[in-house]
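Anyone up for a design puzzle?
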């Protein structure tokens, strides 16, 4: 491109995009670890509840299915329900530790 030619539309677009990226990166500069604090407490509570409920349902479902197949009425249901409860509490503990960072 010679000095006498006007800038092309692509050069103009490139310059505008570059300015916009610089401006948005300055506005979005948040300290590390602040992303999680901006989420609501209700969202965290919902996440904890869903993780605990899902672990209990999966554990209970696996136990019920095994009891149904083997004909051992409540044995596997109780064992896998308790394993699901332990897994759910472990997930809750991990999520709480992640939020505290």
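Challenge accepted. My sequence:
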């Amino acid at each position: 491109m010679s000095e006498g030619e006007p800038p092309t539309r692509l050069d103009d677009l490139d310059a505008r995009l570059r300015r916009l990226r610089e401006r948005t990166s300055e506005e979005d500069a948040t300290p590390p670890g602040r992303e999680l604090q901006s989420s609501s407490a209700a969202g965290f509570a919902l996440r904890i509840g869903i993780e605990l409920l899902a672990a209990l349902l999966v554990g209970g479902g696996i136990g019920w299915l095994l009891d149904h197949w083997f004909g051992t009425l409540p044995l596997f249901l109780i064992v896998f329900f308790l394993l699901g409860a332990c897994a759910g509490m472990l997930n809750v503990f991990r999520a709480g530790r992640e939020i505290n960072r």
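A detail worth pointing out: The radius of gyration is 27 Å.
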